beta-glucosidase (Candidatus Borkfalkia avistercoris), 714 residues
Amino acid sequence: MDKAIKKCIEEMSLEDKARQLSQVNAVIVRAETKAEITGKDEGMDLCEADTREVGSVLNFNGAADAIAVQDEYLSKSEGKIPLIFMQDVVHGFRTVFPVPLALGCSFDPSLAEACAEVSAVEAKYNGVQVTFSPMVDLVRDPRWGRVMESTGEDAYLNGEMGKAFVRGYHKGGILCCVKHFAAYGAAEAGKEYNTTDVSERNLKEYYLPAYRACVEEGADMVMSSFNLLNGVPVNGHKDLLVDTLRKEWGFDGVLISDYAAVKEMIRHGYLETLKECAETAINNQVDMEMMSSSYIHYLPELVGEGRVKEGRIDESLRRVLELKQKAGLFENKYGETDAKRAEEVCLCPEHRALARRAAARTCVLLKNNGVLPLSAEQNIALAGPYAAEKNILGGWACWGRPEEAVSVYDGVRAALGREVVCAAGCGGKLLDKDESGIPAAVAAVKGCAVAVVCVGEPSECSGEATSRADLRIPAPQASLVRAVSEAGCKVVAVVFGGRPQVLTEIEPYCDAILYAWQPGTEGGNAVADLLFGREEPVGRLAMSFPRATGQCPIYYNCFNTGRPRVPDSIENVSFISSYRDTLNAPLYPFGYGLGYTEWELSAPRLSSPVIGQGGKTKVSAKLKNTGSRAGETLVQLYIRDRFASVVRPVRELKAFRRASLPAGGETEVCFELTEEMLRFYTASGKYESEAGRFDVMLGFSSENVQTCELILEK
Ligand code: GLC
């Protein structure tokens, strides 16, 4: 341990130590009286004395505020240890990038890394030393609004994207906190903050790997989550927080609780008092308590009673002081905060250009009967509540401002250099019912060759506390799509949302569907680039799209069951695993997405159809662009372990590769498949491979593959 840190710890009282392990909203540090505190932050039972000394603040307002908070804090503090400033910089700071689920659809870690780096540059000059990102919760249920913050339903993809975020934040100059440890995304029924119950095997196989990948990539902090997991709130899980995170993975950084999650162990019905919450959390090595005050109120007393060892507190304190040291706060109490530099870099042309490129590469073309790309000569109109909407920034838009964003209306007019008809037709709120504006909107666009109809869910309807029980496009918007189609226009639907939505009702009336997610500051320009073919849609789904909400949770790497529906249909449904009122398959599967050209892939070949332990083989195939324009596609490698000591999924994504070819161009795509990539947690609980037959598949989505067979020998 650094000598200075050791000396600092030795000189601190128990009370000061407890306060260093606490984080509050910045406004609380500046509040002068208890009334002001409780007035500003419900449930925060901090007395005035508590705000004299804390270790960290979150949710402050940029460079000037950060400097003022630090100065005011240090002027009152006896300990003179600078605060460390943390914020949710999740997909951009002032320049807002596509939401992480959209970035997951790029299948391009280098793009995620670039976006994270720019986010970090804008954030650090605005006073942020640590971001509460990446969020790598595995998600399988789009009813849960926080799927927006994840990169999807595949643990491998989440790990690759999460590591890219970690690298990008570090390159840009801030520290990062991977969250929400663990399995918060398994909330039952997709209901926010709901119970999670995950088998040991599923935890190890699906829910934990991405957090571990980020820890091993160097994430500086981990955040423990709100959820009840297998009967115990996460902050009460010694097995997870100590045995797995600390002992098995060797993580020695700061573990911070989610917002008041330590205190919520009482509401969960797990502990009775705030004092027990403090004892349990600190002994589970939760180093910092966010926005509840059990540490401040009870750690000194718990040490006096021998229920918590001072050495345990000192270990957490060391981690927090080392974090501040890493952030450079002992050299400069403001870190890299610099209001002038902040103004120079935020929304600069380079950052906007990256935001535009990222938005174009994360949109997913779900349907196209040839209507796209459009030509500037065509008579085009815009309709729908999201055509002129500038708040397409998504949740956690941090300092992003809708007025600085580009709507589809802005982007299309800029692309065409002329005015276009734009008729909202109805409201865009989830529960809007009014359809009275539809006839006028139809009249406005009637006669146009193509109507670009922009629909979806509001930006604020995905993210935290935004679960939905019905994922359909709201009725007025669906009616508008249908009415425009029946008026004789070709319909290009552009859909906004932070999660997969049910498009089944509008699909038949659309000649094309472009899923734009919440594309961020440059969303409208990116959509225009795609509509007019300046950019090709290259996004592929990182999360399955259900055809009905009742199919959720729905994900590609499911199990076959003993009565699989083959082929998928709703005829003769007796005694097989299916629904009587819809197909089993998602409307659009994991890995799916269209471009503007056509592709052919030959059947995969193996350099060695038989391998042994430690062995490997090359999987290759011929790829051809059979369309009339240059294009880019994503070739995906899946496996299926046919028979094993525990049943294996019908598909497991193992690798992916982008390929760009001119019209008529051909190339060979090649992947290395190793015995190590065939390993899983077997019935014995060991992580190993088992001899037997494997399907090896190459394709353009989880459902569009060609297969060959690999034998793994003992
Ligand atoms: C929120 C979220 C978490 C976020 C934290 C600080 O409740 O659950 O993702 O980082 O509080 O804003």
Q: What stands out?
A: DSSP finds 21 helices and 27 strands in the chain.
